[in-house]
Amino acid sequence: MLANKKIVIFDMDGTLIDSVGIWNEVDRKLSERLGGRPLSEEQLQTRRERMLRKFSGRENPYLEYCGFLKSEYGSPLSAEQIYRMRYEISSDFLKNTVDYKENAEQVIRLLKNAGFTLVIASATRKQSMDVYRLQNQNIMRKAMLDQYFTRIYTKEDVRKMKPDPEIYLRVLQDFCAAPEACIAFEDSLIGLEAAKNAGIDAAAMYDRHSDPERGQIERISDYRFENYSELYHAILKEGIIASAL
Predict the structure, then answer these.
(1) pLDDT in tens, 50-62
(2) C-alpha atoms less than 13 angstroms from C-alpha of 230 in its C-beta half-sphere
(3) Which positions, given as ranges, span the membrane (predicted)?
């Protein structure tokens, strides 16, 4: 898995951090404020992902998504106002609730100490990522992003969202790296597709919110892990880290 690899790339939401369910809660509260009928967590997530995929080629897919919500609920607010409202709702969650997935920070430290270059390639907004970097005490206490990751790519760094490979191609270009020198960890089907479309080996990190896509995820991924403890021991078992240390 890590033999001949130099760069390890992680997605953020749902992969490194346990946050997908939080965004479902944000969208539930947003829908309530817009006067929408109650939806289940699965319905909220499916709708959001469907719209983001539909608008993936637009300049700001999340703004387009908020425009969809405006139309869906007949809101007098503009798409821009709904977009700002969504971030305001999410602010407290981002600062105080979001945390690493269990044992993720141990894997991060292990890889960094062994000399791998660590990169984040995420569709997360820079504004949200900056909260994780500078304000979220759960993350900062365990493994500060700026300390362990050489480069953090966010939505603003690319024009097209996953499954388009643009963000991964950008990593390859910026680091002058061949796809064979990299491995990507993703929780979602579209993330895995993006990595594979760039020619990069893709490892699936389990997240329950991706269960509806489980069959496709298992078919497309090169490696699969249920949790970071399993990944940690798999890395040690390879012997690559031991020799590097």
Answers:
(1) 998 899 888 888 9
(2) 10
(3) none
pTM here is: 0.84
Render pLDDT for 92-113 as a digit per residue (tens, 0 to 9).
Answer: 899 999 999 999 999 999 999 9
3-state secondary structure (DSSP) of residue 19: coil
Query: Is residue 82 domain-shared with residue 198, that is, in the same domain?
Result: no
Residues 206 and 78: beta-carbon distance below 8 Å: no
Tell me if the bond preceding 165 is cis, omega within 30° of 0. Answer: no
Structural domains of the chain, count: 2
Four-CA torsion 84, 16, 204, 168, nearest 10 degrees: 70
What is the pLDDT, as a whole number, of residue 7? 99
Give the strand order in the sheet containing 117-121.
151-153, 117-121, 7-10, 182-186, 201-205, 223-225
- Structural domain including 60 reads 21-96
Q: Which one, of 233, 225, 235, lies nearest residue 16 by Cα?
A: 225
User: Has residue 15 been placed in a domain?
Assistant: yes
Give SS3 for 70. Answer: helix
**Both tokens assigned to 236:** 């040690």
Tell me the CATH number at 193.
Answer: 3.40.50.1000
Residues 25 and 81 grouped into a single domain: yes
Classify residue 1: in a domain, yes or no: no
Cα–Cα distance measured from residue 230 to residue 103, given in angstroms and rounded to the nearest whole number? 10
Residues 62 and 104 in one domain: no
